[in-house]
Amino acid sequence: MSCDTALPGAGGLWVLAEHDQGRILPVAFELLGRARQLADRMICPVAAILPGTVDQAGVSALIAAGADEVLTCADPALDNLPEDPCTDLLSHLVRQYEPAVFLIGATHWGRTVAPRVAARVHTGLTADCTMLDIDPKTGLLLQTRPAFGGNLLATIVTERHRPQMATVRPGVLPEPVRDTSRRGRLLPVEPPPLTNRLAELSRLVLPPEQGIAAARVIVSAGRGIMSQKNLALVRSLADLLGGQMGVSRPLVDMGWAPVGCQIGQTGQSVAPDLLIACGISGAIQHIAGLGQARMLVAINTDPEAPIFQFADVQVVADCVPLLRQLVRDLSARRKDGGLGSEAAAP
Question: Do 162 and 44 reside in the same domain of the chain?
Fold first, then answer.
């Protein structure tokens, strides 16, 4: 499959570069990395769509991550990414340039804007994808996401409408290595008439949260932890390794941990260097959120636990006494000066 490139961005793969106060979000780079891989097979350009004002360093970073073109619209009305004006702009650009594929991060904002754009341009949208690929025979985008409560993976194609639109959760795809030698085009575009049904009376800017999605090391617990008090061991080990604690959904449902710690289809997707899963059986809903971990160490008493199929290291043991021993040993090493205040992941 090849793409018509007579117009900037035409027929190519688009990635929406969401930003917060001018700082481009990591999910934009994750999507650009995958779009670049797919576009090289399709012989298509990759365009980053950038509503609002971002400095030249941000534009250069998008090109280094894989964009051939960056379509910008520096209208002040778009700076804080209000949903109505952004929907107007994106729908207008899709109609004008007719991209083959449009990828958007499944952030709170992306989940609001993507379906509006899809409805405006009369195309389909596959939400919360975990894998993206190209069918070698048809050239169609293969959009894979968990379905039926996460009990199976469904691959969806958009055969009759364009663009093929998908949202992908942050952390599902690896961020690419940026090539600062890449060259691309900056293409300013004029906005259509913009509407906004909301009037902003004031704005409170909160400091960015460092949640588990950005953690390099995660120690995660499931039902096999047996008791809420044993989560203290999980937190202690995570602290000793310079990481954060994660949990499976049942522990959140029981009120043992906040929802911000939840990993999985209905929680967060993570891509740490090291993830230690303690007493987690490995339901597909949970695996959907940790599939990008560079190293997965699983501890479970059941040698047939499904999580062992995905683990790099399998430990058949009761996680509670093992956690207790690890915390004791690492605490002793830190006290003796053998473990820094923030341990490096392997």
Answer: yes
Q: Please report which helix (H) or strand (E) contains residue 96, including its range.
A: helix 83-97
Label the pairing between strands 46-51 and 141-147.
unpaired
**Claim: this prediction has a pTM higher than 0.85:** no
Same domain flag for 134 and 25: yes
Q: Judging by DSSP bridges, how do beta strands 101-105 and 164-168 pair with one another?
A: parallel
Q: Burial, 341: exposed, middle or buried (Cβ in 10 Å; 0-12, 13-18, 19+)?
A: exposed
What value, to the nearest 5°, has the Cα angle with vertex 260 and ends 233 and 115?
Answer: 155
Three-state SS at 27:
helix
* pLDDT at residue 232, rounded to an integer: 93
Spell out where 228-324 has E strands.
244-247, 274-278, 296-300, 313-316
Mean pLDDT of 121-142: 88
Count the Cβ atoms, other than its own, within 10 Å of residue 344: 11
Distance CA 261, CA 149 (A): 20
97 has a pLDDT exceeding 70: yes
**pLDDT-based confidence at residue 175 (cuts at 50, 70, 90):** confident
Q: Which domain holds residue 255?
A: 212-335
The predicted structure's pLDDT at residue 335: 77
Give the per-residue pLDDT at 151. Answer: 62
